[in-house]
From TrEMBL, chain A:
Start and end residues of each Transketolase-like pyrimidine-binding domain: 4-179
Signal peptide: none
Protein name: Alpha-ketoacid dehydrogenase subunit beta
CDD domains in the cross-refs: TPP_PYR_E1-PDHc-beta_like
Keywords: Oxidoreductase, Thiamine pyrophosphate
InterPro entries: THDP-binding (IPR029061), Transketo_C/PFOR_II (IPR009014), Transketolase-like_Pyr-bd (IPR005475), Transketolase_C (IPR033248)
Species assigned in the record: Oceanobacillus chungangensis
GO MF assignments: oxidoreductase activity
Top-level taxon of origin: Bacteria
Listed cofactors: thiamine diphosphate
Length: 325, 363
C-alpha cells in the first residue's frame, strides 16, 4: 500500500491498464513528454513509449474523432481533454457519435473509450476551465459519467471505466487532485460503475452528493453532529447511471433528503435525483427534498468564484431546513 | 503520379521567411522597407520596451498574488506590436489570451487589463471606442468570429478590417480553417495572424502538422499567406500593412505566420518549460531578440538613446503602479452582480435567486 493523492492514483490506474492491455492508448494535448498539465500522465510515455502514450495536435474535435476511429480499429482509447470546459469543442464526438455507435450498428460495434478530463471550481482558473458540465453528458443516453471523490476510488473507478466496453466520461475535480492523500493499494482492483457509496451513516437526514461536494457534505455532517443531527452522506460516484437503490434505501430510512451539486441549479443531476425520490419514496418523506446548488449564472470570473460556489455552510442550512420542517 | 508530389513541394518552397532587419539590426530588404517617419519608428520602440517592462512587472505581480491569470509575452513583442501598429482605431481586434498588449495599445486602460487577469467583470467592460473582444481563452474561437466581424464590416462598407491572433497550436483547430475559409469565401476584410512561437504549451510545432510552414495553410482556403520573421518588427509591420491594404481594397483576407518565441513559461499557472525546451534553444532565440535588433537599427540612425529607454521604463513602471492601485479599488464582486449580467431582463428563476443572494450578501 502507498499513500497517494488523487492524481497519483489516476496515473497509477492508467499505468495498470497500459500494462494490462496492449490495446489501451493514452493521448491528448501535452500528455506525452510533459506528462499532462496536471501531471496525470507523468512518466507514462517514458515507460510505455510514444506508440502508446502520445501528444495530439491541438484540437479537441480531432481528439474525439481519433478516439472513435481507434476504437473502431479495436483499441481502447483513453483520451484526455485538457479541461472539461473544452467539452464544447468535442461535443459532437462525445454526444453525437461515440455514444450512438453501438445503437446505430444494432449492437454490433462498441466504443470502449474513456474520456478523462479535469473540471470543477475553486482553483482560480481562467474562464471555461472550471465549469461543471456533467449534467450535459448525463442527459445524453449511451454514455456513462463517473466522478470520483477520493484517491482510492479514483483508481478503482478509472480501471473499471477503461475496461468498460461502452464510452465513459471520467471527470476529475481539480480541487481534489492534491488536496489529500490516502492509502491506495499498489495492486489492481476495480469499483463497479453505477454503484454509490454510503460515506457516512446517519439516521436523521440523507445528503446525496458527488465530487468535491462529498467533502463539503461530510464537513457539514460533522458540524451538525455536535448539534445532535445525524447525517447520512451518499457519494454517487457515477452520476450516469445513478444508483437509485442506494439513494432510496437511505431516504426510506431517514425520511429526509438534501441533494448537493456544485453545478448551477437549472436542470442538472440534482434535479433528477429529487424527481426520482418523489416518484419512488414520497410516502416515506417527512419534508420536501431540498437542493444545494450554485446560482444560474455562467461560471463566475475567478475573483468571484469563492462566493459563488456552494460550501458546507450552505449544506448545513439546507439540512437544518429539512430537519426542522 | 509524380505531379502530386511536386505540387506540395513547389508550394512549400514558395514560403520563404519575409525579413527586413537582420539580427544585427541591418536592413536586408530595402525594397520592402515600410514608410515610417522617425517619430513612428521611435514609437514602435517605445511600445516594445514598455511592453517588455509590463511583462516583467506582470510576472512579479502574479507571483505576489496581485495578478491572476497571466500568459507571458516577452520575445513576442515584434509579432504582437508590429502587427498592431499597422492597424487603425476603427479596426476590430479579436485577440487570444496572450495578446493583451495589443488591446492596451488599442486603448484598453491598464487597470482593466489587470482586472481581467484577476477575474473581475470590470476587466471585460471595454471602453466604447476600443473595438475589440476580450482575450479569447478557447483556442481558435476568435478565428471564426473574425470572419463574422469582417463580413459585417464589408456589408456596412466601412474602411476597416478585423484582425485576429492565435498561436501555432491554434492552427490545428477546425475553427482556424473554418475562419479563413469563410472569410475567403466572402472576400471579407480579415487578417489572420498565427504567432508561431514553436510550442503549444509543451508540444513542439512539428507535432502540430506535417505542413512545413503554417503560412501555406492559406492556400487551401484560397487566400494569401505569408511567413514573416516575427522577431523583426519592421517585417511584421510591413506584412500586416500590406494585408490591411489588400483587405480594404476588397482583395480578401491574408494569413500571416510570425516566427517568434516566448521566453517565459506558457502561463504563470504551473508550467515548467525546462520539461520541454533546452537552454540552447532559448539562447538561440534570445539572440534574435526583437528589442535588441530594433534598438541597434535605431541607434544606427541616431534615433534612440539610453536616456530615452530609461524614460520609457520609468514611465511604464509608474503607469503600472497607478493601474494596480486603481484595480485594487474595484468593488468586490457579488453573485448579484453576476446574476445581473445574465440577460437583458431577468427570467423568473434568476429573479428568485437575485432576491435570495441580495438577502445573503447584504448580511
Ligand atoms: C479549445 C482549447 N483547447 C485547449 C486549451 C488549453 N490550452 C491553452 S493554451 C494551449 C496551447 C496553445 O498554444 P499556441 O496556440 O501555440 O499558443 P501559445 O500559447 O504558444 O501562444 C492549450 C492547449 C484551450 N485554452 N482551449
Ligand atoms: Mg505557440
Amino acid at each position: 500500500m502507498a499513500q497517494m493523492t488523487m492524481i497519483q492514483a489516476i496515473t497509477d490506474a492508467m499505468r495498470n491498464e497500459l500494462k494490462n492491455d496492449e490495446n489501451v492508448l493514452v493521448f491528448g494535448e501535452d500528455v506525452g513528454q510533459n506528462g499532462g498539465v496536471f501531471r496525470a500522465t507523468e512518466g507514462l510515455q517514458k515507460e510505455f513509449g510514444e506508440d502508446r502514450v502520445f501528444d495530439t495536435p491541438l484540437a479537441e474535435s480531432g481528439i474525439g474523432g481519433l478516439a472513435i476511429g481507434l476504437a473502431l480499429e479495436g483499441y481502447r482509447p483513453v483520451p484526455e481533454i485538457q479541461f472539461f470546459g473544452f467539452l464544447f469543442e468535442v461535443m459532437d464526438s462525445v454526444a453525437g457519435q461515440m455514444n450512438r455507435i453501438r445503437f446505430r450498428t444494432g449492437g454490433t460495434k462498441n466504443q470502449p473509450i474513456t474520456v478523462r478530463a479535469p473540471f470543477g471550481g475553486g482553483v482560480h482558473t481562467p474562464e471555461m476551465h472550471a465549469d461543471s458540465l456533467e449534467g450535459l453528458i448525463a442527459q445524453t443516453p449511451g454514455i456513462k459519467v463517473v466522478i470520483p471523490s477520493t484517491p482510492y476510488e479514483a483508481k478503482g473507478l478509472l480501471i473499471s471505466s477503461i475496461r468498460d466496453n461502452d464510452p465513459v466520461v471520467f471527470l476529475e475535480h481539480m480541487k481534489l487532485y492534491r488536496s489529500f492523500r490516502e492509502e491506495v493499494p499498489e495492486e489492481e482492483y476495480t469499483i463497479e460503475l453505477g454503484k454509490a457509496a454510503v460515506k457516512r451513516e446517519g439516521k436523521d437526514v440523507t445528503v446525496v452528493a458527488y465530487g468535491a461536494m462529498v467533502h463539503s457534505s461530510l464537513k457539514a455532517a460533522e458540524e451538525l453532529e455536535k448539534e445532535g443531527i445525524d447525517v447520512e452522506v451518499i457519494d454517487l460516484r457515477t452520476v450516469s447511471p445513478v444508483d437509485y437503490e442506494t439513494v432510496m434505501e437511505s431516504v426510506k430510512k431517514t425520511g429526509r433528503a438534501v441533494v448537493v451539486q456544485e453545478a448551477q441549479r437549472q436542470a442538472g443531476i440534482a434535479a433528477n435525483i429529487v424527481a426520482e425520490i418523489q416518484e419512488r419514496a414520497i410516502l416515506h418523506l417527512e419534508a420536501p427534498v431540498l437542493r444545494v446548488t450554485a446560482a444560474d449564472t455562467i461560471y463566475p470570473f475567478s475573483e468571484a468564484e469563492d462566493v459563488w460556489l456552494p460550501n458546507h455552510q450552505d449544506i448545513v442550512e439546507k439540512i437544518k431546513a429539512v430537519v426542522n420542517f | 503520379m509524380t505531379i502530386l508530389k511536386h505540387v506540395l513541394e513547389s508550394v512549400e518552397n514558395q514560403f520563404e521567411t519575409f525579413q527586413i532587419l537582420n539580427e544585427d539590426g541591418k536592413i536586408v530588404n530595402k525594397a520592402d522597407m515600410p514608410e515610417l517617419s522617425d517619430e513612428e519608428l521611435k514609437e514602435l520602440m517605445r511600445r516594445m520596451v514598455y511592453t517588455r517592462v509590463l511583462d516583467q512587472r506582470s510576472i512579479a505581480l502574479n507571483r505576489q498574488g496581485r495578478l491572476g491569470f497571466y500568459a507571458p509575452t516577452a520575445g513576442q513583442e515584434a509579432s504582437q506590436l508590429g502587427s498592431h501598429f499597422a492597424l487603425e482605431k476603427e479596426d476590430y481586434l479579436l485577440p487570444g489570451y496572450r495578446d493583451v498588449p495589443q488591446l492596451i495599445w488599442q486603448g484598453l486602460p491598464l487597470h482593466q487589463a489587470f482586472l481581467w487577469s484577476r477575474g473581475h467583470f470590470a476587466g471585460g467592460q471595454f471602453p466604447e471606442d476600443v473595438r475589440a473582444l476580450f482575450p479569447q481563452i478557447i483556442i481558435g474561437a476568435q478565428y471564426v468570429q473574425a470572419a463574422g466581424v469582417a463580413l459585417g464590416i464589408k456589408k456596412r462598407g466601412k474602411q476597416a478590417v478585423a484582425v485576429t491572433w492565435t498561436g501555432d497550436g491554434g492552427t490545428s483547430q477546425g475553427d482556424f480553417y473554418e475562419g479563413m475559409n469563410f472569410a475567403g469565401a466572402y472576400k471579407a476584410p480579415a487578417i489572420f495572424i498565427a504567432q508561431n512561437n514553436g510550442f503549444a504549451i509543451s508540444v513542439p510545432r512539428e507535432k502540430q502538422s506535417s505542413a512545413k510552414t503554417l503560412a501555406q495553410k492559406a492556400i487551401a482556403a484560397g487566400i494569401e499567406g505569408i511567413q514573416v520573421d516575427g522577431m523583426d518588427v519592421l517585417a511584421v509591420y510591413a506584412a500586416t500593412k500590406h494585408a490591411r491594404n489588400r483587405a480594404i481594397n476588397g482583395e480578401g483576407p491574408t494569413l500571416i505566420e510570425t516566427l517568434t518565441y516566448r521566453y517565459g513559461p506558457h502561463t504563470m499557472s504551473g508550467d515548467d518549460p525546462t520539461r520541454y525546451r533546452s537552454d540552447e534553444l532559448n539562447s538561440e532565440w534570445e539572440k534574435k531578440d526583437p528589442l535588441i535588433r530594433f534598438r541597434k537599427f535605431l541607434e544606427g540612425k541616431k534615433l534612440w538613446s539610453e536616456e530615452e529607454e530609461a524614460k520609457v521604463i520609468e514611465d511604464a513602471k509608474n503607469d503600472i503602479k497607478e493601474a494596480i492601485k486603481k484595480a485594487d479599488q474595484a468593488p468586490k464582486q457579488k453573485v448579484t452582480d453576476l446574476i445581473g449580467f445574465m440577460y437583458e431582463e431577468l427570467p423568473v428563476n434568476l429573479q428568485a435567486q437575485m432576491e435570495e443572494y441580495q438577502a445573503k450578501e447584504s448580511k
